[in-house]
Each structure stands twice: as structure tokens, then as C-alpha cells.
Amino acid sequence: MADLKPVYLLSGSDRPKIARALRRLRDRIGDDSTEHLSARETSGEDAVAACNALGLFGGAGRLVIVDEADRWKADDVKAVAAYIAAPSPETVLALVAEEVKAGAALAKAVAKVGELLTYDVTKRRLPEWVGEQFTRLGASADKDACRALVDVVGEDLDELASEADKLATWAGGDPITVEDVERLAVGRAETPIFSVTDAWGRRDVGAVLARVESLLERTHRTRSGELLRILASLAGHVGRVRRCQRLAETGVRPREAAGTLKMHPFAAEKAFAQAGNFSAEELEAALVRLAELDAAAKGGSRMPAELELDRALVAITRRAA
Fold first, then answer.
1. Torsion sign over Cα 43, 158, 107, 114
2. Half-sphere exposure (CA, 13 Å, Cβ side) for 234?
3. ∠ CA 49-51-57, rounded to 5°
4. What angle do CA 225, 267, 286 make, to 5 degrees?
């Protein structure tokens, strides 16, 4: 207890990291000496009473965890702040919040005698964060696999951590690949388009057609609705690759272009690499063909929309003879 602060305020979007920090506190003090409360049902005065209730439980220390502390009203914060000014020497109070500004009354009170711990992950850093989870679990995965997991699962860190744990256990020390993620990860995000755009960027016609068919089979939408989504996503990607190609022609590097194009640096690097596989004329022609496909898929052709899609995909992916 001597090296622990009397109060901690843990906040931020990285809920798995907050959970691990709380687990370390519980391991230090003991589950039997821990009381877990929620500000939804517990007032500030009740939380203070729990902190002062050492005699009821015995032992050499006590941990009181309060979730959603940012829900407390002014009177609750005032009561807790008064306790923090003169905390029980045998109790550690851990307050958990989604977001607390540094200038807020609760944060100011904690900062005087305790510690503010903020664990945030921006959307741009999600693939990097996934890689850190794999490393922590003793597993390895390249950037493509980490990005793939974000594309498949979405941005919820708890779900990403759970899927990373599952994949690390399954891999048993072997490197985790994009194919492993696609085969094993449970998708909660929009069905990812990256598998199609990556295959297109490699100019792999067979893979493009197979990936598109897989997306059409897995969709929770109608097939026609998913087809239009694939078309819009692919057109947007080809447009970004064309812009990257133009920037590359002027000497701009991928990481410099990322900010201008509002892309993740890794995605910019991939788009620059794909741009090198196509001529400017091919990319311009691809954009025109995708625009024509959009019109055809919306009733402008007598042929089935999926056949029109396959024909267009072959045309914009294959190399000229």
C-alpha cells in the first residue's frame, strides 16, 4: 500500500488498458478487499462511505472502484473531493470515466494527492494498437493483418482485444496473416472492402472476382445493395490511388501525402504502391468504367448487375495484352 496513491482517475477510450490497470490494483490488494461500484447507482456520499468502511471488512487494505464517475453531479463531486482532501490511509479509490477534462473539479481534486491516468487511442492508431496487443500476447502480425482486423471487427477496442486474443491463441506462435484474420475474426464492422482493393492493386483478376463474390454472399443487405456499396468503395479507392499517383509525380512522399489526403500513413503508402502498378491512362479509364457500371447497376443495362460488375472488374484489373 505504501507505494500506491490514495486515489486514481482512469479515463480514455482504451478500455482494455484501463481494465488491466484495475486488475493490477486488484491483484495488489486482493479481490476480497475490493468493492466495485457504479456512479449510475452510487452517489458521491455513498462512495465516500465505502472508502471509510475498512472496519467492516478487516485486512490491511481496501480498494474501491467506481465506474462512470463522469456521471456524477456537482454535489457528488463535492463530496468525493472533500474525501480526497483527507483520504483513508488504508483505502485506494479508483475512479473510472470515459472522459474528464483536466480542468474539471474531480480531476483537480485527484491531481493534488493522486494520479490522473489517461489511456486514449485515436482512430488513426488503431492498426498500431492492434499490433501492440499481439506483441503483448506473444504473437506477431504484420501491418496488413493488423489493419485487416480493424476493418473486419470495427473500432470497438474491447472487441478488437478479444479477437486479437483469440487469434494469438490460435496461431500458437506462428505469424498471423491477413488470410488468418479474414478466416477467423468475427466481423462486426461493415464488411471490409480492403480485400477487393488489395487484390485490384495487385492486378489479380481471380482474387478480385473471388473477394467480391465472398462479400456478396456474406452481406446482411440485399445483394444489389451490397453491390452498390462495393462499387462506391472501389470507385473511391481508385480515385485516391489516382491522386496519390499525381502527388508521386511531383515528388511528394506517401507520409507527406497522408495529411493532405486525410489518410492513415499506412494506407497512403499502400495507395502509392498500387499507383505504381497502373498507368495514368488506366486509372482514368477505370474511373470512367466504374461510373458507367454505376449507371448500369441502377437500371441502365439489360444485363444482370452482377454480370456487369464482373465484366467491369476484369476490365479495370487485368493488364493489357
1. positive
2. 32
3. 95
4. 55
Residue 248 CA to residue 101 CA, distance in Å, equals 41
Which residue, among 314, 92, 72, 87, has the nearest Cα to 208 in the 3D structure? 314
> In sequence order, what DSSP letters do the residues of 82-122 get, joined into one string?
HHHHS--TTEEEEEEES---TTSHHHHHHHHHSEEEE----
Among 160, 125, 120, 127, residue whose Cα is nearest residue 141? 127
Taking the C-alpha atoms of residue 195 and residue 187, their distance in angstroms, rounded to an integer, is 14
Tens-digit pLDDT profile for residues 259-295: 788 777 778 888 999 999 999 999 999 999 999 998 9
- Phi, psi angles (nearest 5°) of residue 63: -120, 125
Q: Which of 42-51, 112-121, 226-235, 306-315 has the lowest mean pLDDT?
A: 226-235
Residue 229 contacts by C-beta under 8 Å, 6 or more apart in sequence?
Answer: 190, 193, 221
At 312, phi and psi to the nearest 5? -70, -40
28 residue type, one letter = R
φ, ψ at 114 (rounded to 5°):
-120, -145
Exposed, middle or buried, 234 (CB in 10 Å: 0-12/13-18/19+)? buried
Q: Burial-class residue 179 by CB neighbours within 10 Å (0-12, 13-18, 19+).
A: exposed
Strand order in the sheet with 7-11: 34-38, 62-67, 91-97, 7-11, 115-118
Nearest to 83 by CA among 113, 115, 123: 113
Q: What is the mean pLDDT of residues 213-238?
A: 83
Task: Write down how long the chain is.
Answer: 321
Amino acid at 125: R
Interhelix angle 205-218/305-317, nearest 10 degrees? 150
| DSSP-H helix ranges across the chain | 15-29, 44-51, 54-57, 74-85, 105-113, 126-136, 143-153, 157-171, 178-184, 194-202, 205-218, 223-249, 254-261, 265-275, 280-295, 305-317
3-state secondary structure of 67: strand
